[in-house]
Amino acid sequence: MKEVNRILVAIDKSLMAREALKRAIAIAKANEAQLVVMHVIESSLIASPFVKSLDGEGIKKQLIVEINKLTSPENMEYIFFIEAGSAASAIALKVKSANIDLLIIGTHGKDDISSHYFGSTTLKLIQKTRIPVLIVKNEVKDVYKKILAPTNLSEYSKESILFSHTLFKEASLKYLHAYITVDEFQALTYRISKDQQGKFKKELLTEAHLALEKFVKDVGEGEMALVEYNASINEDLLSYIEKDETNLLVLGSKGVGNLNSFLFGSTASYLVQNAPTDVLVYVPVITKSKQDMKPIKEEVKPVKEEIKAGISPIQKDLDSRKEEIMDDLETLFEENLKYANWNIPEAPDQEVAEGLVAILTEKLNEINQKVKDGKYQEKRRGIFS
């Protein structure tokens, strides 16, 4: 299991960002990891006379004072970055460029998690960064002592638990497995007698217990718990989590293709948003085995086909990032819709949206004309060149 050598905590000027920083400091110290702190100034796509220009240097100095208050008592050194742009894109880029092993972000509890900001930033970061993300929802009072790990007994779930063992060595773990059962409705539908229903339920419980017991042998000792469900796995798991005295929820993810690609499909996404505890979402690094690796000759064939089809490397790159580019544009659109609502609360959303679309269209037409005029003929160098 990969060690955590570098931790990035993304902060703003909120109270929960302070808690996220406190948690990051504690984890970095416990794991002897380098701490990287980052703040993103979300820039508005459309200038507004009602929005004051932001003082980047002033914000930086203010944040450094706050960071030093927390890091100095712990004698914790850190690296600080402040950038402007889309939070999700800027943070994801920093994660990649700085070889970050763990990302920590704060949120303001259930109400904030369901908000546009959480949906467009936190969940997107889980998708984009492809590294473990710790979501801090509560005030930091102590180290994590009790960890709850809902599991479907998959390899991805196993990796998430082993990672949590590495990160939080002193914490105790409880493994929670949800298994399907036979309810009254199913018994009536399939004309199952009470005796048969009871027999089936007992068999399913025994199978689930044996499967969880086998799983636990591979991941380490811990308490085991089972939850039976039929059609409401989300609510049943959340109900258990809310009653359990746990500090941290650990969720494995089998992919990052969409927001419903987590361990339990949409269930883990549901738990990320609704669980009252802090949440660690673990996305394992998928590496190809020797059997999965194609010979070089087989890899060359698709490239030749792409060349024949007229697909340029530029087009291939843009196609691979098409969804990300479109998501970022939509996020900027919605952010400006929000700004308008703040500035003019009584303004109808539809009217504001139509106005924003008109402005965006006008600007895109200007850019299109510049492209036709050859403005971008000369190859541009990198932004830091």
CATH domain topology of the largest domain: Rossmann fold
Rg estimate, integer Å: 25 Å
Strand content: 15-25%
Helical coverage, percent range: 40-55%
Arithmetic mean pLDDT: 79
| CATH H-tier superfamily of the largest domain | HUPs
Strand order of the largest sheet: 3-2-1-4-5-10-9-6-7-8
CATH architecture type of the largest domain = 3-Layer(aba) Sandwich
Count of helices?
A: 14
| Total domain modules | 3
How would the blueprint of this fold be written?
Layout: E1 6-11, H1 15-30, E2 34-41, H2 56-71, E3 78-84, H3 87-97, E4 102-106, H4 110-113, H5 116-129, E5 133-136, E6 146-150, H6 155-167, E7 172-180, H7 184-189, H8 194-219, E8 223-229, H9 233-243, E9 248-252, H10 266-274, E10 278-282, H11 296-308, H12 313-320, H13 322-343, H14 349-372
Parallel strand pairs: 1-2, 1-4, 2-3, 4-5, 6-7, 6-9, 7-8, 9-10
Antiparallel strand pairs: 5-10
Helix pairs in contact: 1-2, 3-5, 9-10, 13-14
Account of the protein in words:
With 385 residues, the chain is an alpha/beta fold. The protein has 3 domains: 6-136, Rossmann fold, CATH 3.40.50.620; 146-282, Rossmann fold (3-Layer(aba) Sandwich); 296-315 and 325-372, no CATH class. It is 50% helix and 16% strand. It contains 14 helices and 10 strands. It has helices at residues 15-30, 56-71, 87-97, 110-113, 116-129, 155-167, 184-189, 194-219, 233-243, 266-274, 296-308, 313-320, 322-343, 349-372; strands spanning 6-11, 34-41, 78-84, 102-106, 133-136, 146-150, 172-180, 223-229, 248-252, 278-282. It has a 10-stranded mixed beta sheet with strand order 3-2-1-4-5-10-9-6-7-8, with helices on both faces. Helix 1 (15-30) packs across helix 2 (56-71) and helix 13 packs across helix 14. The radius of gyration is 25 Å and the shape is globular. The chain starts with 5 loop residues before the first strand and ends in a 13-residue tail after the last helix. Residues 109-119, 255-265, 286-304 and 380-385 have low confidence and may be disordered.
